[in-house]
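Entry 14. Ran structure prediction on the chain below.
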Amino acid sequence: MDPGYVELYFDKYVKFDPLSTRQYFAELEVPVTVGDLMPYDEFLDTRFYREWVRPQGIVDCIHSLLDKSVTSIAMFGVFRHERDGVADVEARHRMRLIVPHIRRAALIANVIDLRAAQAETLAEALDGLSTGMFLVDASGHIMHANAAGHVLLEAGDVIQTMGGHLLARDRHADRVLREVFAAAGEGDAAIGSNGISITINQEGGDPFVAHLLPLTSGERRRAGTSYKAAAALFVHKAALATASPPEVIAKTYRLTPTELRVMLAVVDFGSILEIAEALGIAETTVKFHLRNLYAKTGTNRQADLVKLLAAFSNPLLDRPAELLDA
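Output, structure tokens:
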């Protein structure tokens, strides 16, 4: 893609993109196309398509979410040129095959920069993590622990060490850990390409989560060779997954995707004419959706919608009663 178009997207057209808000609702690793997010004919009528997509000869994009947080999403996507046509069944199949590997690589890269994973810098990099991290062999013997990991071991109320082996105080979790340590030594397929998460309960305290990733192939194996490690285990206190503000708003007030788009466009554009032009719909359609928004959210003007969005987006502001009840 022409770098100029990439720059133009983020400088101008990202706010006209009718797909961006809908992508928050996709599931991780599931291939999604334009037609999955909105009617394709409706997409062709948008300003975004006319001014940014069509001039490049693009007709579709198939992508999958790699990660999603309160404020952002990370995606891997492939644009489809008009010479190839829109994404078909085979394209979806290929995407399903490759995305789990890309997501796993991205998750690991967020924790360990493999390009800098040399023996003299690896320990220092791992000590910078707030999550307890352990490199273990197939028997659960600890080959390396970072600073946060040593703190957990010294506390001894969640995990502990005996004879150099990592043990969980929770008997059920400990049994599962021993099984997955052994499985990791036999290869990735034994415990799945994305690893496995295990809940470790502690008496009288909050539960912890242990996420195990195998280190038995590819770059991950090379990163752990000096330790002869079979797996990397990350242990941290369990936290509730938090949905993105658009997702919370839509679920709280039971908004349709188009109603959510109009609501977000109120902030970006303001006037009904500008909203209609940006979304590629008629002014009467915008007014229709605004009436629905007012009825569902208990507001009666656009300024109230802006305040409502701000309340969901800023954790320092009071949340609406509906969200607290939920």
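Residues 218-227, 314-326 have pLDDT under 50 and may be disordered. Will compare against last week's run tomorrow.
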